[in-house]
Design brief:
By secondary structure, the protein is α/β, with parallel strands linked by helices. One of its GO terms (biological process) is citrulline biosynthetic process.
Length: about 300
Amino acid sequence: MKHFTSITDVEHPDALIQQVVNLKEQPQFSNIGKHKTLGLVFFNPSLRTRLSTQKAAQNLGMDVIVLNINKDSWKVEFEDGTVMNGATQEHIKDAVKVISSYCDIMGVRSFATLEDREEDYKERVLTNFVQYSSVPVISLESATLHPLQSLTDMATITASAIQRPKVVLSWAPHPKALPQAVSNSFLQWSPAIDAEVVCACPEGYELSDAFTGGITTMHNQEEAFADADFIYAKNWSSYDSYGATPAVEKDWTITVEKMALTNDARFMHCLPIRRNVVASDPVIDHSLVYQQAKNREYAAQAVLQNLLEDL
Ligand code: CP
């Protein structure tokens, strides 16, 4: 594996998912990363991604350096050929070349702005990192995808050992407009496991065709929940009216009553979650969310191990 920015970087996604399941069942430590450095660069906040990736690197003997680039460093310029006599102080090209000279593997997190769909879906920040880095790049969530989360989620579902489960990716309410990255990525990875996948969302919240091909989209949440084995909740803003949050008539919060319509489904969410907005307290308290969060460590470890082996 050269980089880990999307499932398309992975030759055998099913084998990588199984590697995560195996690590979860039998955690392992090694020194394959001894005297190697992982650099983590964050344009946006993080709890799980930052700590689980750091822990995974330590499990492999790596040293880790972290930069909250928007808070602690110079203001970054992304346009080529700009006369930098304004607010920006360091060009992305220079920043990435320098940071990667201190690392053997680098990770970057940069969310969608939700202002310009074309710009966000071009993945300008991630693309610049891949272009100018002298070392492999891991996406710690980009404008349109969150592959470490999706690898984790596929491993969490696979570890349940339910034969061909029905998995519902359900839109849920949120007070702020959120990117589509987790949901896009979840759908992009789902063909790597043997599952029936349904996307449930209100009208106006359909995801890009690039990710929904072959997946049933339903606008009735209760009907979608029938016979489900897993409910994966996530909010996202509109793709068609990019970044907008059109009014939704029905209440899409996931409750105990809605979970009762399923086949005793397990509730999943990537966290952080707005309690009693996305889902009610009892749904979250009897869910897989903490297992998912712990599995982030094993997903990051599997990815780092593969990248280290190919250095
Ligand atoms: N799920 C996830 O990526 O969590 P953080 O945003 O806290 O890293």
